[in-house]
Amino acid sequence: MLTDRALAGLQEATHKGRVLTAREDLLTYASDATPLLRQTPAAIVIPRDAEEVAAILALANEEGFAVVPRGAGTGLSGGAVPTENSVVLLFPSWNRILEIDVANGTAWVEPGVVTADLHAAVEAEGLFYPPDPGSMRVCTIGGNVAENAGGLRGLKYGVTKDYVQGLEAVLPTGEWVRLGGKAVKDVAGYGLKDLLVGSEGTLAVFTRVLVRLVPKPVRTRTLLAGFGSLAAAGEAVATILADRIVPCTLEILDGVTIGAVEAFGNLGLPEGLEALLLIEVDGHPAAVEDDSHAVGAICRRLGARRVRRATSEDEAEDLRSARRAAFSALARLGPTAILEDATVPRSAVPEMLVRIREIADRHGATFGVFGHAGDGNLHPTCLTDVRDRDAIARAEAAFEEIFAAAIALGGTITGEHGVGLAKRRFLARQVGDASVRFMRQIKAVLDPNHVLNPGKIFEPGPRCEHPPLGHPRYAEALA
Q: Is the pTM of this model over 0.85?
């Protein structure tokens, strides 16, 4: 519980009326989109501007409560799940696109701007913001930056960090910083902007974001190819990339996911498919036509039962929407759907697909698999029931093996969802104890009292004391 003094301080910092403590409000923000993780916060605070954010964080350091910034709550690693005795920050009115600078190819936006709204606004100017997370119609830019969100177009265009050119943020101590800017080149000092992108709300609260824009592609072609086996689809992925074709989208869905998506979207897919590839190429019209025909030919040569080419933008959007609905469609098949994002080098995608299927079968668990095959980012999704302890235990054991397999193949426990609460126990297995200690040292320097989203990414050190750098017990305190 917050002390009376802390609660009064929050009311004063926000000019009253924007501190919520009613039980129904607290329960609304007790979780994000991650299943099985929930914690009721002590209060909800809706700051009006950066000055109020700074005042809240300064108060948190004085009074010893935690602050958890939250975007749209679509995260899948527990990054926005409150911690004990925490205050959740909401930004519902921070939704303005402040500037679109066509000459410099940039846009200043507030953190609450919905990603799809930014897409529409800049495309009206002939520009393009490539990052397109699956939840882009709901998720916000602030959350995208915090999690370094990816998306379907990541193979060709990269992820959020590749498009963040500047940041304004409040540090955990309440200090305000501005990093980066419109200059294309800037190597003045350490790359602090890049440190904050993907820091999962543990190192700063973003108040404005400067994103980089690129010219909107002149033409796009969308294809859907169905295969009788995962192996054939995986070989098609490898062959397309080996032929020096770089689609903007190269997605895969397995048989379980195909059935769910077909029931959800009624695409008219043939029965008996074990894998489906959604492929898009974009760019100059002549190159797009050449590449789309080459991709179709590769798929047919490698056994595709059907290759469907969208004949209109509406049809292409229907196909994209079906892929974006993969998780929602799978979630309809059972009481609980646990979505993860084990990621491997793209040459290892066929083997990883086989290993996921073997692991699921061995544990008697039902999995659907979909994801960004072109960049190796797979989403194994377990369909289970939170009320069945044995089923949940089998799901957890299966995921543990899946993460181990990804690491063994040179991959990572997360390609875009983040570590958060859900995967922090696996982090040291991938990066090693020394790397985790290094991360904790960075956290301790920027957040000496561990007030900002504590417990995410890795367990916090002892909260009783945080010795200064150079102190002989510093390493022990961070252990």
A: yes
Q: In angstroms, rounded to a whole number, what is the distance separating the alpha carbons of residues 402 and 406? A: 6
For residues 142 and 115, the answer to whether their CB atoms sit within 8 Å is no
Query: In this structure, what DSSP letter does residue 103 have?
Result: T
Local structure of residue 355 (DSSP, 8 states): H
Residue whose pair of structure tokens reads 């996911």 in the numeric block: 257
pLDDT by residue (tens digit) across 144-199?
Answer: 999 999 999 999 999 999 999 999 999 999 999 999 999 999 999 999 999 999 99
Q: Are residues 139 and 152 in the same domain?
A: yes
Say if 416 falls within a structural domain.
no
Which residue, among 141, 18, 11, 25, has the nearest Cα to 63 in the 3D structure? 11
DSSP state of 452: B
233 with 364, same domain: the answer is yes
User: What is the C-alpha separation between 338 and 383, in angstroms, rounded?
Assistant: 7
Contact 155, 135 (CB under 8 A): no
Assess contact for 94 and 117: CB atoms under 8 A.
Answer: no
**Which CATH number belongs to the domain containing residue 66 in this structure?**
3.30.43.10
Q: Describe the crossing of helices 349-362 and 230-242 by its angle, rounded to 10 degrees.
A: 160
CA 381 to chain centre: 15
Question: Between 285-301 and 230-242, two packed helices, what is the crossing angle to 10 degrees?
Answer: 140
Q: Which two tokens stand for residue 107?
A: 């846009």
Each residue's pLDDT tens digit, 96-128: 999 999 999 999 999 999 999 999 999 999 999
Give the 3-state secondary structure of 359-397: HHHHCCCEEEEEEEHHHCEEEEEEEECCCCHHHHHHHHH
